[in-house]
Amino acid sequence: MTLFRPQVKLPIGPLLDAAGVRHSRTGDMHANPNPITALSIAIGKPVATCHRWCRDGVPIYSADEVATRIGLHPASVWGGDAWLAACHEQDRLEERHLAVVA
Description:
- The model has no long low-confidence stretch (mean pLDDT about 80).
- The longest helix has 22 residues, at about 80-100.
- The chain has one domain (about 10-100).
- By secondary structure, the protein is mostly helical.
- About 60% of the residues lie in helices and about 5% in strands.
């Protein structure tokens, strides 16, 4: 039996910005034409994973890993308050889940 483990997710936009791979809105021909592929290369994750994160958000457990892969702390990417709120929410969900399972 597989137990459901809820996960808080963070938006991918701040990660794209921190990695410097966003589309240019100025029409610059040298801007990155495919930011998801560039992000995939920068963080060492499959392109499909990055596309899933665009759709669903970056899981809190992956957020720490990928932020450090680009040389930053997750709070530097998503903001300290957002990061702390996500961590507290994840703890709350896990406590509730453990209470249901027990």
